[in-house]
Amino acid sequence: MPCPSHRPYHPMTIIKPNTKPRLWWLFPWSYARTLHTSANALRALSDRLDDALTFQSHVIADQSEEIANLKQEVERLNSVIESHKDAGLRLIAMLNEERRKNGGQS
User: pTM for the complete prediction?
Assistant: First the structure.
């Protein structure tokens, strides 16, 4: 609370969403308008949250599909590497065999 010696003091009006308007029992329509405004704001917020959840579920589904595609690509590349490795080993064995034959004849 401010010091009373500082005059004039005008308290700030704070509007709280969970309070009723003044004299609401005399003017029930003002209370109904406040409730209607709050309900519309809450509905808009829930719609935005639903959209955000839908968007997140689509992102997660896309990521899962992309992960599956990448795993398939890794498996394919591993099989290509293995086949090339086997071909390379056969080529090295064949070259070693040729060296032995040529080395033994000279």
Answer: 0.47
